[in-house]
């Protein structure tokens, strides 16, 4: 295969975990090529812009990007670089798997679920936000559309079908938010009817949070609106051992961007102790997206192997290794597989 992807090393620990991730990917010998481009503080320092045109063009050209975390400068022109990328490439589906890996600080065994979060509308739009002159009354709008709901629910069902997953839980608050959540639920029911082989159940968001904490193994794929998905996916990351193991994909009509859920971790940047697993698991999602699921499975197996033996892993996972020693252990495991 000859495929080139855009690679943004990112800020803070970004270059360290990207380096480790690419070393592991190279070991797969898939023929994947990288075009390195900048964004965030690294781009600001190099060319005076946070999101240079060349970076946008590279993502548009290759349609797939692997991205390290970006530091959004406080008081900068963008509310968030990630929101800007989401808008530019219409990255409507935020796909976040949460899978327990033995040997980590997960709260439960046997969790294997994916949250599919609508990424472009809902409560996170900037339209219609007002604050009264006396500063005492704030308003914001929630926008839910048939088109937005249909495409995210369909994405979740297609993902379930592709991965042989059996159950989708539609998470909503239609009992109170009758118009917005109500429309999402109505459209979800219509789409679900087209997938009779996949069980579909509905759950109100507050109950869903309790169920996730009490009995997370009951969930397979969760599909929900923007705000609920943001909160639920972090809850799920916490259930399986925290930020160091939480990957995410942002899938759009024009491109797909894969990244760790965590940020640039300025407190440990440059120390060589950042855990590369979240970015590596995001790279596994990317391999699946590129039709290389068998290679993704090899990397996931290597991660499970190294974590089970606590072989050269980073301090956040209870080891005394480094980012580089972690990558070495993963490569050794791949060579042995
Ligand atoms: P953070 O996720 O960077 O760090 C939170 C804590 O988790 C820190 O103690 C950090 O050391 C630890 N941590 C994070 N990743 C780790 C890893 N791979 N290995 C070991 N420990 C890890 O969150 P923050 O400190 O709130 O944010 C720092 C910067 O990152 C901010 O500028 C924020 O805007 C940005 N950010 C970017 C993204 C992104 O690009 N997707 C996401 C979140 C935050």
From TrEMBL:
Q: Which GO terms describe its biological process?
A: isocitrate metabolic process; tricarboxylic acid cycle
Instruction: Give the source's domain of life in one word.
Output: Bacteria
Q: Could you give a GO molecular-function term held by this entry?
A: magnesium ion binding
Q: Per the record's keyword annotation, is Hydrolase included, yes or no?
A: no
Oxidoreductase keyword on record: yes
* UniProt KW keywords: Oxidoreductase
Q: What would be one Pfam family of this protein?
A: Iso_dh
Chain ranges of the Isopropylmalate dehydrogenase-like domain: 4-330
The entry assigns this protein to a family as follows: Belongs to the isocitrate and isopropylmalate dehydrogenases family.
PANTHER family, alphabetized = DECARBOXYLATING DEHYDROGENASES-ISOCITRATE, ISOPROPYLMALATE, TARTRATE (PTHR11835), ISOCITRATE DEHYDROGENASE [NAD] SUBUNIT ALPHA, MITOCHONDRIAL (PTHR11835:SF34)
* Descriptive protein name: Isocitrate dehydrogenase (NAD+)
- Species for this entry: Tahibacter aquaticus
């Amino acid at each position: 295969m000859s495929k080139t992807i855009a690679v943004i090393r990112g800020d803070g620990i970004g270059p360290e975990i990207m380096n480790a991730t690419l070393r592991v990917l190279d070991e797969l010998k898939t023929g994947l090529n990288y075009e390195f481009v900048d964004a965030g503080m690294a781009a600001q320092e190099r060319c005076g812009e946070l999101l240079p045109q060349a970076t946008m063009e590279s993502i548009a050209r290759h349609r797939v990007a692997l991205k390290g975390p970006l530091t959004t400068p406080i008081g900068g022109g963008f509310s968030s670089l990630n929101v800007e990328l989401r808008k530019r490439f219409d990255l409507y589906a935020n796909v976040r798997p949460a899978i327990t890996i033995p040997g980590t600080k997960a709260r439960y065994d046997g969790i294997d679920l994916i949250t599919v979060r609508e990424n472009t509308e809902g409560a996170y739009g900037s339209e219609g936000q007002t604050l009264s002159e006396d500063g005492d009354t704030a308003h914001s709008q929630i926008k839910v559309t048939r088109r937005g709901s249909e495409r995210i629910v369909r994405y979740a069902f297609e993902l379930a079908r592709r991965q042989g997953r059996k159950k989708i839980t539609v998470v909503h608050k239609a009992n109170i938010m009758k118009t917005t959540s109500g429309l999402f639920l109505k459209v979800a029911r219509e789409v679900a009817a087209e997938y009779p082989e996949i069980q579909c159940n509905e759950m109100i968001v507050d109950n869903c949070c309790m169920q996730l904490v009490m009995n997370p193994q009951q969930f397979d794929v969760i599909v929900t609106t923007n705000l609920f998905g943001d909160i639920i996916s972090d809850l799920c990351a916490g259930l399986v051992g925290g930020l160091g193991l939480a990957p995410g994909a942002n899938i759009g009509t024009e491109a797909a961007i894969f990244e760790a859920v965590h940020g640039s971790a300025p407190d440990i940047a440059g120390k060589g102790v950042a855990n590369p697993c979240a970015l590596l698991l995001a790279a596994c999602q990317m391999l699946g997206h590129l039709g290389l699921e068998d290679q993704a499975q090899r990397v996931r197996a290597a991660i499970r192997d190294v974590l089970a033996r606590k072989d050269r892993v980073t301090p956040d996972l209870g080891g005394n290794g480094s980012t580089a020693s972690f990558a070495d252990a993963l490569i050794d495991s791949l060579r042995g597989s």
